[in-house]
Amino acid sequence: MSTFSAPSFYLSPSKAALQLQYVGKDLKDVPTPAAVLDLAPIRRNCEAMLEATKALGLGFRAHVKTHKTTELTRYQMGHESKDIRLIASTVSEIENLLPYLLECKSEGARINILYGLPVALSHIQRLAAVARVLGEGTVGLFVDHPRQVEDLASLDDSSWPGRIPLFIKIAAPISRAGLLPESASIRPLVQAIASTPKVQLVGAYAHMGESYGSRSPQEALEFLMNEVKDAKVGADQILQSMPNESSGRLTISLGATPTATAVQNALVETEWNQKFRSYIEEVKDKYDVEIHAGVYPVLDMQQLATRARPTSAEGKPLLSTENMALRILVEVASTYDEREKPEALIAAGSIVLGREPCKSYPGWGVVTDWSSSSAHAGASSVYDPENSKTGWIVGRISQEHGNLTWEGSTNGMRELAVGEKVMIWPNHACMAGPNFGYYIVVDGESSEPDKVVDVWSRWRGW
User: Fold this and answer.
1) Where does the record place the D-serine dehydratase-like domain (predicted)?
2) CB 242 within 8 A of CB 279
3) Per-residue confidence (pLDDT) for residue 309, from 0 to 100
4) Mean pLDDT of 349-366
5) Rounded distance between C-alpha atoms, residue 358 and residue 353, angstroms
C-alpha cells in the first residue's frame, strides 16, 4: 500500500488553466473575493532579509506556512542559493515542495527542511517517504518528549535513510510547544536521543511569539536579544547533557517575523545595536545561529503594529503599507448611509479575512486607496491606526459578510458605490489565505501595476 501524499489527495487547480483565465487581465475584471500578491514588495522584503542575515553572519531558514507556494519560496531563498533551509507547519507543505527541493539538489544545493511541530507518530511514514527521495540529512524533526524519539528508533535505512536530524523545541518564553530553557526534562530527552543510533541531535529551536507585542524597532531587537539568551540557556542545558563523545556544533534556530526582521535594525550604527552584534558574536563562538521567519515577505496589519523596523531608511520603505504585498480584492454589495456611521457591505467575512484582531485598531482589515472606480482611485483617506484614524475599515465581520465602517470625521469622506471593487489589507496574512485556492499576482513596479502577470496555486491539505 502506497503512502498517503497530500498532492495526490488535495489536488490544486491547473496552473496553466489559471494563467489562461487571468494573465493579462486588469484587477478590476477579476472575480471577487480574490487574494492578490504584489511582486514588488515581495522582492524588497525577501532581499532585505537575506542581505541582513548575511551581513550579520547568520544562517536563515524560511517558513513557508504563510503563503504555501513554490514560487514565493524561491524568492525567500534567493534564486541562486546553495543553502536551502526551510521550515513547514504541515506535512503537505513538505510534500508539495519536493519538486523544488529536487531541482535545488540537482543544482548542487544543500537541502534541509524541518517539520515544524513535535513529530506525531502518524506523520512519520509520510516524512520518511520524502527523506527517501531527498536523501540523508535533508528532513529534520522537532522533539520535546522521549516518546517521540522511541517512535523513530525502530526505523531502518530502508524506511528513512541515515540518521534523522533532531532539534529540541525550546519554549522561549511562551509555552505553546517545547520545554522551558531550564527544564529538568531536557536531560532525559537528550539521553534518549544519544542512546538512539537512528537520530542525531543538531540543535535547539525557539519561536519568539511574544515579539508581536513590540512597539518600536529597538524593542523588537530587545525581544530578539532576550530570545537569543533564552535559546542559549536551553542550548547550554542540551550541551551539558550530551555524552562526552558527542561531536559537532549545535545550531540555535530562533525568530518570529518581528524579531527576525529586527536584525535589519542591527545594521544601523548605534551603541545599543553594537551591543547586540557583540553578543551575537559571543554566542556564535559556541553555536551556529540561524534566524527563521515566515510572514515577512507579505506583511500584514499585525506586523505594522509591531513597529519592528523603521518605516524608512536611506530612502527605502521598510515597514509600511508600501511593503505590504497581500491584499484582498472584494466587492461592495450594499451601502448604508442612514446608520450611526456610514457603512458598506462586502461579500467577504471571516472565511476570507480571518478573525484575528490587531492591537493597533479595532477592526479586521483596512481598506486601501485602490479602487476599481476611477473616481476613487488614489483616494487619500486611508485609515492609519497610528495617525489619522480616518477611513474605511472592516469594522464588523461574520462568516460570509463583512461590514465596512467609516471611522473619523466624515468631512471629505470617500463615497463607496454598490458594485465597486476595493482592496483590503488583512490583519494576519497566515489566516487570510487558507480559503483561497490560488493567488492573483501583479507587479507594482511594472508599467501596468494592475495587470495580472501570473497565478500561484496554494497547497492544500495537512
Assistant:
1) 325-443
2) no
3) 66
4) 95
5) 12
Report yes or no on 437 lying in a domain. Answer: yes
Measured distance CA(392)–CA(412) in Å, rounded: 12
Same domain, 325 and 367: yes
User: pTM of the predicted model, to two decimals?
Assistant: 0.93
| Residues sharing a CB contact under 8 Å with residue 11, sequence separation 6 or more, in sequence order | 460
Residue 307 near residue 261, CB atoms below 8 Å? no
CATH number, domain at 129?
3.20.20.10
Q: What would you report as the CA-atom Rg of the chain, rounded to the nearest whole angstrom? A: 23
Q: 432 and 354 in contact (C-beta within 8 Å)?
A: yes
Same domain, 211 and 340: no
Number of domains in the chain: 2
Report if residue 301 sits inside a domain. Answer: no
pLDDT above 70 covers what percent of the chain? 92
Residues 330 and 389 placed together within one structural domain of the fold? yes
Kindly write down the DSSP assignment for every residue of 299-352, as one continuous string.
--HHHHHHT-S-SEETTEESSSGGG--EEEEEEEEEEETTSSS-EEEES--HHH
Selection from 171-180, 187-196, 227-236, 270-279 with the highest mean pLDDT: 187-196
Asked if 383 and 392 count as a contact pair (C-beta separation under 8 A), the reply is yes
pLDDT attached to residue 376: 56
In which domain, by residue range, is 277 found?
82-293
Residues 188 and 334 in one domain: no
For the residues 111-122, what does the mean pLDDT come to? 94
Position 37 in a domain: no
**Residue 314 confidence (pLDDT) above 90:** no
